[in-house]
Amino acid sequence: MLLQDLHIHTIYSTSDSSVVPEQTVALVAALNHARIVGISDHFENLVDGVFEHYVLEIRQAGLKVGVEVDGHSWAAEATGYNVDYYLFHCRDRDADYRSLDKLLATGKPVIVAHPNALCTDLSRIPEACLIEINNRYVWRTDWKKFYGPFKDRFKFVIGSDAHQPNWLGQAAAQFAAAQLGIKEHLVF
Questions:
Q1: Tens digits of per-residue pLDDT, 1-45?
Q2: How far apart, in whole angstroms, are the C-alpha atoms of residue 129 and residue 114?
Q3: With the CA atoms of 73, 90, 27 and 37 taken in that order, what torsion angle do they form, in degrees rounded to the nearest 10?
Q4: Would you call 159 helix, strand, or coil by DSSP?
Q5: Residue 1 CB: number of other CB atoms within 10 A?
């Protein structure tokens, strides 16, 4: 069993064609693949009257409530919603780096999601942020070169980025973290 998995999508991420109809909150909860499980669907899919039902379903399943915020254009609005944590797409844009301060000001954990796939400059990320090593994207870059210089600066979270039940695993990300000598930070 995994210690934690906080980067999981469900059918609430309606704009994501990778999510299959079977990927429901109930199924993720029933699979019980990690001690701490969080659902972090795409925030932009939750703002039109869906959020309350989203939170209710996740809390009733005994899981943590997160949202994946796609850059600066959604960050300010996301701070007004009651979640346990944020996943944030921080592309290499000044506005995205500035938005991290808004999210951090909420006092909730902020996980910079798949930074190697988004070309995030980790030297510009506040040390209070958590950095994700993502099972889905870890191989998209030279992960030793990308994460290595920052392994002592940040706390790291390993995520599956599961869009389908068969994606609920972290073998590749855990391998990369072990090779770097990174111990996963438990958020909750």
A1: 999 999 999 999 999 999 999 999 999 999 999 999 999 999 999
A2: 13
A3: -120
A4: strand
A5: 6
